[in-house]
Amino acid sequence: MKMLDLNRIKARILESKRLKYGGYATVVTIAFIAVLLVINLVVEQLPVKFDLTKNKMFSLSEQTLNILEKLDREVTIYGLYETGKENAWVEQVIDQYRAKTDRIKYQAIDPVRNPGFVKQYEPEEGEITTGSLIVLSGDKYKVIDNYDLINFRFDQYTFQPKAESLAVEQQITGAILYVTAEKNPVVYTLTGHDETSFDYLVSRQLRTENFEVKELNLLSAGQVPEDAELLVIHSPRRDLTTDELRKIREYMQNDGRALILMDLQAKEFPNFQSLLASYGVRIRPAIVVEEDENSFAGNQLWVIPAMEKHRITDPLKSGDLRMLLPIAQVIEETELKKRTLEIEPLLRTSEKSWAKVNLNSQTPQKEPADLNGPFTLAVAVVDQAENYDRDSRLILVSNGRFTDGELVAQVPGNLNFILNCFNWLCERTDNLEIRPKSLTTPMLFMSGADALLYSGLVVILIPLLVLGSGVFVWLRRRNL
What we know:
This protein is of the alpha+beta class. The protein has 4 domains: 1-46; 54-185, Glutaredoxin; 186-425, Class I glutamine amidotransferase (GATase) domain (Rossmann fold, 3-Layer(aba) Sandwich); 448-480. It is built from 12 helices and 23 strands. The two termini are 25 Å apart. The model has no long low-confidence stretch (mean pLDDT 84).
């Protein structure tokens, strides 16, 4: 009887201990969950957020922050979204702008319910698509097309577009610079000689950086317009007329700026050569061939040029960006030139390069008449004549195909080079340096030893720790 009572007492004590520890565990668990909920609610209300993404997807760049700090007028951003179909990615970036300054306002407008509002901002040649942004300050506005906010590429296997990078900050900051600037540079591209148009990627980036690009036919125009900041001549297939040459000379003598891209031609262009000779340079129609294995890509005629020190090329060198020039020609300095000229090479070939002079030659080998390198492939010229209010500038590149769509898309240095040329010629110091932020998931590269180490950690060590802790808890409870 006494033994039975003793067992009952032990059982009650054990029961009370289990109830006690179980109650403690339940209370601690509930308290822990409650604390987590409170912390989560408090943190959600705090304005401080941390961007832990590798490429700072949800953070503004230093350049944007500096622009917002100096912003002295109100800017309104309208998002054209149907109600309930707003773009969370875009609005999250806009929220970053609003958090940094109270001069940025944002409002979502339903284009279906407010067609009259959208109509007043539509261009003559088209209509604004849903998902676009309108950036407005005073009477000046800029429309950012929905398709310019995200960069796509086509998958070579599925032939379907795939989002590659987010350009929201790049586009919005560019638009803010545009609507708040007193004046934006006007660029005229020469037509009438079968010139090549800039590829879409180049044209879009020029618009993003607020260059207003117009066409100019000097056969019908009396002169280069007075508002021209820059004249671009892109790969002409016919020579200038004498009258056109006169008009361009008059423009250049009045502190003009010109960018000339010349592709290889089978015939001479004497009027173009005369214009170039005014700046102490000329094009030699000879095909550059590279012998240095590090200075060409696949084909010896596709040159990877070395970059000389200059404001145009320095950013490319610091960013380790290469260029690729297909079928380049030789640029030479003339023997006679004005003392006021300052000629600076931008791109050069290697010491092992040579150039084929006979364009009709049937042999790919070097011949006795061919030229020995190195050669200049691009040059920047400044004319600092005393009677000028400011200097006259010219950039000559012995190839225009480097701005083709495929090359610009695959060789970032090509796009950056042409943009830097525009900015240097127009003397712009507020040029946009923000680049799209990648949406692709970076690949994880792991050595065999690392793979073995992490496999052992995940497959063996962590499961043993979990099993050991479980056995420990079970033994402890059993002895209670």
